[in-house]
Amino acid sequence: MEIADLVRPAGVVANLKATTKKLLLQDLSARAAVLTGLPERMIFDVLLERERLGTTGVGQGIAIPHGKLAELDRLHGLFARLEQPIDFEAIDDQPVDLVFLLLAPEQAGADHLKALAKVSRLLRDKDMCEKLRGSEGPEALYALLTESATSPAG
Question: With the CA atoms of 32, 34, 39 and 45 taken in that order, what torsion angle do they form, in degrees rounded to the nearest 10?
């Protein structure tokens, strides 16, 4: 499984404006609704429910909100770089500016975990995050996200 299997060019946002965690999740839900064909509210509720279990702000300015929806037929990803970092109640209390939303079918089990691990590995790479923060436009972000699959990164 590669990042390109999870996110399409239309699922990359370069300068998302959001001032709170809730507004960010609402915006991402609206964008994910367009990509998946599912109701925005359904996606938002799943994301909110997951956040109640514990923050998906994993530290270093990164959040990986995720959830499972029975109505999905495959994994869907959406990447956003925020215009301004926001408080996401991250585990290191640092504001978040890079967000990778991951939605999986209810029965995705291992694939969901593999996708989370893949995204987590990608965003733990400090050089990658610097490049993502310094890139212009969604095309450049998408190229960075998906090119890493072919480079021999550990």
Answer: 20
